[in-house]
Design brief:
Layout lengths: L32 E5 L8 E4 L11 E6 L2 E9 L15 E2 L7 H14 L3 H8 L12 E6 L14 H9 L6 E2 H8 L3 H9 L3 E6 L19 H12 L6 E7 L5 H14 L3 E5 L7 H11 L4 E3 L5 H13 L4 E4 L11 E7 L7 E2 L5 E2 H12 L2 E6 L4 H8 L4 E5 L29 H12 L16
Parallel strand pairs: 9-16, 9-17, 10-12, 10-13, 11-12, 13-16
Antiparallel strand pairs: 1-2, 1-4, 3-4, 3-5, 6-7, 6-8, 14-15
Helix pairs in contact: 1-2, 1-10, 3-4, 4-5, 6-7
Length: 458
């Protein structure tokens, strides 16, 4: 079992607040050397010389020679200084990717030390989509030419061509297929206008189309308990590090409570990470989010295609993704302005990573929140022992929801003693259970029975 941060009291010292600026991190100029951390299972940083035409600062993503190949790494800080200048290789170049913020680099070092892993192995969790670090290939697009309003000789202005020129009048670059769809014509019309010089060819940098959630969209009416809990959690957004245990019975509306905290972070222009144990099975949660905020959130899980992961990684790093819901690996995405972390069903064993870097995502979420200086919410109906201990010790604030939402009642649960109320001959269900099943089916409802067998083993 992965140990809990309960053994690290310094984790809960008063936070110093988020440190996303790099003003205190001086750039290394030509003639200097820097320590570069590579996303490989290596002991630590490697020294590289800074070329004359380059200025580097901690967090910059760079390309460096490593043996016979070129790999991507991150400027981590001071060089080790144990390599002779004559043997020192130079940084090949700086990538256009956004630098890794200081709290994320501190998080990598913290996780490496806590899990007894190499920092490079943890960095590989951050740089899990290497192709996302390269600039995207531009797409061929079109805009209205400077004299696109003229009617060239020899080209008849058909209604279809007029539609295209009217659609391109806003001067927004669009690909040929996009412009054709907007105009309701075929792509051959676009090519004809481009050949005639009425449309000008341009390059378009592709990007993820990420709709922004509406933080001011009205949500459902909260109960008294929900209102108190939502006010406490939302009030901590922007006030530094805090851990809230949202402890509520099943059906008490915990999701709607932390949605209010998410809305508070969105109104501050910050990003929100929501972690679920089984993201691929959470269609109901995604529907509730869209009902609340008007758009679906970005997703991060193993069912995404490589292209989807690449675009999502870039959009997160650029700050375009405002709310992301994901599995445990989402904790290592490079959020530049993270304002809130939510760990739903925090007791679930699915948050444990058992291969490679072995960690518990719930505990590491608390660590990342601490290093970033933001609140984290642990939501559950059955708190884990570690979380219960931290709440009892006063390290975690506890918000309790004691009743089910909208007056819903918990189902009745009864125990049947098979010795006193056993089945009839040649039967294996008690008479009480058989009667309850008949009544359920007669009412047009469904029933489910679990049989305590696996294969041939009782």
């Amino acid at each position: 079992m992965v140990p809990s941060p309960t053994k690290l009291p310094d984790l809960f010292d008063p936070p110093s607040g988020p440190e996303t600026e790099r003003a205190d991190e001086p750039a290394a100029r030509s003639g200097a050397r820097v320590g570069v951390l590579l996303p490989l299972p290596l002991k630590g940083v490697y020294d590289y010389a800074v070329p004359a035409d380059l200025s580097l600062a901690p967090g910059d993503v760079v390309a460096v020679p490593f043996g016979p190949r070129t790999v991507h790494g991150v400027v981590w800080g001071d060089a080790r200084g144990d390599v002779d200048d004559k043997k020192l290789k130079a940084v090949s170049g700086k990538l256009a990717a956004r630098p890794l913020a200081k709290p994320l680099r501190e998080f990598v070092d913290w996780v490496a030390g806590y899990t007894i892993s190499s920092p490079g192995s943890v960095l590989r969790l951050v740089m899990s989509v290497p192709e996302a670090l390269e600039p995207p290939k531009p797409l061929a697009g079109f805009v209205l030419a400077a004299d696109g309003g003229r009617e060239p000789s020899g080209l008849r202005m058909t209604p279809a061509r007029k539609k295209v020129l009217a659609a391109a009048a806003d001067m927004v670059p669009r690909t040929g297929p996009d412009l054709a769809r907007k105009s309701g014509v075929g792509t051959s019309v676009i090519r004809g206008l481009a050949d005639a010089g009425l449309l000008q060819a341009v390059e378009i940098l592709p990007g993820a189309d990420v709709p922004a959630p509406d933080a001011n969209r009205a949500g459902p009416t909260l109960s008294e308990d929900q209102t108190v809990a939502a006010a406490a959690i939302a009030g901590s957004v922007g006030a530094g590090f805090a851990v809230h245990l949202l402890d509520g019975v099943t059906g008490s509306g915990k999701t709607e409570v932390y949605f209010e905290a998410a809305a508070a972070a969105l109104r501050r222009g910050q990003q929100v990470l929501v972690m679920l144990p089984e993201i691929a099975l959470s269609a109901q949660w995604l529907k509730r989010f869209e009902d609340r905020f008007g758009v679906p959130p970005a997703e991060w899980h193993s069912d995404l295609t490589r292209a989807q992961r690449r675009e999502t990684w870039r959009a997160v790093a650029a700050g375009d993704v405002k709310v992301l819901v994901g599995a445990r690996s989402a904790l290592f995405l490079p959020f530049p302005d993270l304002g809130l972390i939510v760990v739903d069903e925090e007791h679930e064993a699915a948050y444990k990573q058992e291969e490679g870097v072995i960690y518990h995502a719930r505990d590491m979420a608390v660590v990342r929140a601490r290093l970033t200086g933001i609140p984290v919410v642990l939501a559950t109906a059955t708190p884990s022992l570690e979380t219960q201990l931290n709440a009892d010790a006063g390290r975690y604030a506890r918000e309790v929801l004691t009743a089910r939402h909208a007056g819903a009642a918990l189902p009745e649960i009864g125990i049947i003693d098979m010795r006193a109320d056993g089945p009839a001959g040649q039967q294996w269900l008690s008479e009480r259970l058989s009667t309850a099943l008949r009544e359920t089916v007669a009412a047009g409802e469904q029933a489910m029975l679990y049989l305590n067998r696996r294969g041939y083993a009782p």
